[in-house]
Amino acid sequence: MPETLVIRADGDSQIGTGHVMRCLSLAAGWQSAGGDVVLAIARSSAALLARIAVADVPIVHLDVVPGSLADARQLLDLANSSAAAWIVADGYQFDAAYQRTIMSSGRRLLLIDDYGHADHYCADFVLNQNLSAREELYENRAAHTRLLLGTRYVLLRRQFLEFGNRQRDCPQSSRDARRSRSRQRHRQGHQSS
Predict the structure, then answer these.
(1) Of 86, 122, 174, 183, which has the most beta carbons under 10 Å away?
(2) Higher-confidence residue: 162 or 3?
(3) pLDDT at 156
(4) Distances in Å between the alpha carbon of 41 and those of 79, 107, 155, 156?
(5) Stretch 160-173: mean pLDDT, rounded?
(6) How confident is the model at residue 13 (pLDDT cuts 50, 70, 90)?
(7) What is 125-183 written as a DSSP string?
(8) In angstroms, rounded to a whole number, what is the distance separating the alpha carbons of residues 75 and 52?
(9) Given this model, what pLDDT does residue 182 score?
(10) 3-class SS at 88?
């Protein structure tokens, strides 16, 4: 049975909600496997907190500057009180010093990243799920750091996963309309030649 997973992410109108939303996808998967999740947040909005409540993920509010040493220490206190072996951090504020602080505690760390923002990576795993993800973004990393790069590692909410194997029905009238437009464009291209 999976242990407790502590997730650290922020979201509000200034920084957006994408970090938290993809972490909610990870939380849902962890919960489906029988584990517990706690989400630690320092910045949020009322709408985002309502969305998290719907996902049934407990929230712990941190009164810290995001990405600071105090942030890392409070997160480790939460991990200790939750008996969590793993921490997930998602956000541009989690630099090399933050990662080192988490790693020095003996906790395992998954860092979710979008573009290689840190000057050094020492997390156990770095996940970049974007099409543009490439190893060169993470050349300055610890020898033990494993990279999870590309869309095969994308964190999708359940409602989007349901569409993965679904066949789309395209009514005959829609197919006919597309063919007609295509023929019309083709004719126009020959007339202008």
Answers:
(1) 122
(2) 3
(3) 80
(4) 14, 19, 19, 20
(5) 60
(6) confident
(7) EEEE-STT--GGGG-SB-TTPEEEESGGG----HHHHTTTTPPPP--HHHHHHHHHHHH
(8) 19
(9) 57
(10) strand
Instruction: Enter the DSSP assignment of 44.
Output: -
Annotated domain spans of the chain: 5-161
* Local structure of residue 118 (DSSP, 8 states): S
Say if residues 4 and 87 touch (Cβ distance below 8 Å): no
Q: Distances from the Cα of 57 to the Cαs of 28, 52, 79, 117, in angstroms? A: 8, 6, 15, 28
What's the whole-number average pLDDT of the chain? 88
Topology of domain 5-161 in CATH is Rossmann fold (3.40.50)
**Sequence-ordered list of residues with C-beta below 8 angstroms from that of 27, at least 6 positions apart, any chain:** 5, 7, 37, 39, 55, 57
What confidence tens digit (pLDDT) does each residue in 69-114 have?
Answer: 999 999 999 999 999 989 999 999 999 999 999 999 999 999 999 9
Bridge partner residues of 127 (DSSP): 112, 148
